[in-house]
Please model this.
Amino acid sequence: MSKSRLYSGMQPSADSLQVGNYIGALLQWRDLQDAYDAFFSVVDLHALTQPNDPAELREKTRRTAAQYIAAGIEPSKSTLYVQSHVRAHAELAWILSTITGFGEASRMTQFKDKSARYGTDATNVGLFTYPVLMAADILLYQTDIVPVGDDQKQHVELTRDLAERFNSRYGTAFTVPMATIQQDTARIYDLQNPTAKMSKSAESDAGVLWLLDDPAVSAKKIMRAVTDNDGSVRYDRESKPGVSNLLTIYAALTGRQVPSIEDEYAGRGYGDFKKGLAEVVVAEFGPVRERALELLADPAELDRVLASNADRAAEVADATLADVYDKVGLLRRR
Ligand code: ATP
Ligand code: LTN
Model:
């Protein structure tokens, strides 16, 4: 039996990924890549919805791809590619935009948040159609499951609605995908502000643990992480968000259960606990960082891998797009 399809992606919005991306996305992608026919993209077209320096965007795109591979996504097993290398994404997004309601798109909370933050004049139309492009990403590959954080759930719901609408209006062209949402325990918070999600585009980077940071810098950030005055290493998301967040990171990176870590550090204070976590983080990220830097030292080889994966992706995507063009009534070029 052929494997089910899986699709996910991340924006190249920073030079390095952060520990939340690693725990919340990459570790699961890596574990799922054997059981599924998996497609992982670096969604550079989506990244254009934010202001970018062109040379920096190119570099961030390579760096994001290198970190996927360094974290264990194997380009010989999974299809790991750059979104803009497959033209069909932008083309299908256009078709899907013609069956997306204006009101429907206006209800997307990510758009509402971002446009409220920037103001209408600084909000570009790409931000508004962002979810339509995301739907195109997913639907081009006849995707069965989409592992994402819960902030993306609404976008996958829209994707399902668009797939069903297209299929019933024009005939079946798309598999209707399902979001597989990560559990809340996989949510990592900012080390300095442990009630806010850790994010690549945080205003200050003091609370962000970067995958590609120097190990000494990561260790220092952990030692300075905000905790509380209670002094006991105990998970309590409500009253001890800082310590709970550190415990979550510790557990996720070691595969251990939180209570066993609590036991290990019972009566030992935060200094010891943070030192222990710093060792775990350095041991886990050290090899990932080295591998990523190695890959980035040979950009020609990395580009070659991305190109051959893009060829593989385009084969699937082009077949879907051709079917869609036929179904909506575009005249075929002979
Ligand atoms: P940006 O600040 O550019 O929005 P981000 O760091 O918030 O970036 P995304 O690129 O939006 O991350 O998300 C990529 C993937 O990483 C998604 O699957 C998302 O759920 C996951 N992810 C991001 N931040 C965290 C976090 N703090 N905890 C757990 N998972 C996260
Ligand atoms: N919007 C997503 C990134 C993304 C994505 C996708 C995720 C773009 N296209 C397709 C899954 C499937 C985010 O995580 N910020």
Remarks:
- The radius of gyration is 21 Å.
